Amino acid sequence: MINISSGPGFARFVLLVFLCSARSVNGQSASSSQNVLSENPAPKASARDMNESAGESAKAAAINNPAARSHRFTMTTNLWIASSLAVYTAAALDMNATEETVRRVNALHKRVPWFPENYSFESNPLARPLLKLPAPAYYACGIALATGINYVGLRMSHSKRFRRVWWLPQALSVAGNTHGYLSYQ
Predict the structure, then answer these.
(1) Where are the domains of the chain?
(2) Angle (deg, nearest 10), helices 75-111 and 168-183
(3) Which residues contact residue 69 at a Cβ distance below 8 angstroms, ignoring those fewer than 6 apart?
(4) C-beta separation of 92 from 21 below 8 A
(5) How far is 145 from 46, CA to CA, in rounded Å?
(6) What's the pLDDT tens digit per position in 15-51?
(7) What share of the chain is helix, strand, coil (3-state, %, to 5)?
(8) For residue 155, which of 169, 171, 141, 145 has the smallest C-alpha distance?
(9) What is the pLDDT of residue 26?
(10) Could you list the mean pLDDT of each consecutive 10-residue stretch along the chain, which spans 185 residues?
């Protein structure tokens, strides 16, 4: 079983995962695109296809071969994917630091009974009630909140009214979680 709260090693691991996944946002590697091409070979032309004009057979080949159809993400989509990865990374780092602080406060409360155990060290009013949950439930709620923030950003990016500020919920979330992570270090 993997210990999630292994301190600075966990932070390095999360940063490494973020950097590796951000690299894959730009596109597929050469080996993965070769695998797609080898799994979906171009259909062979029949006698009927030879009678068709060259333009029509090229259209038919592009429709029948999914590897021939290329999909390119727009710049907004690429930025949304990168910022959603940043939201998840910052949320995971903040939750790990907060959970470690909860463990320290509980250990201190056991050694010194008069030390308060009211979780007043958490300044985020949304996260304060969640600190009383077990660690897996706390992490699940944090990831659900990050997913909700990413969904709001995605909906804003497709909206005519808010498309210019679609990045704001994600940027505020990353800033808040980074502040929370750095304040517990």
Answers:
(1) 8-26+73-183, 40-72
(2) 30
(3) 62, 63
(4) no
(5) 54
(6) 555 555 555 444 444 444 444 445 555 555 555 555 5
(7) 70, 0, 30
(8) 169
(9) 46
(10) 52 57 48 48 54 54 59 82 96 92 85 77 79 90 95 93 94 94 82
How many whole angstroms separate alpha carbon 54 and alpha carbon 58?
6
**pLDDT for res 91:** 95
Length of the chain: 185
Backbone region of residue 27 per phi and psi (left: phi > 0; alpha: psi in -120 to 50; beta: other values): left
Q: What is the pTM of this model?
A: 0.61
The token duo for 16 is 């490494």
* C-beta of residue 10 within 8 angstroms of C-beta of residue 4: yes
Instruction: Report residue 2 as tokens.
Output: 């993997």
Rg, C-alpha atoms of the chain? 24
* Rounded distance between C-alpha atoms, residue 102 and residue 108, angstroms: 10
Written as one letter, the residue type at 6 is S
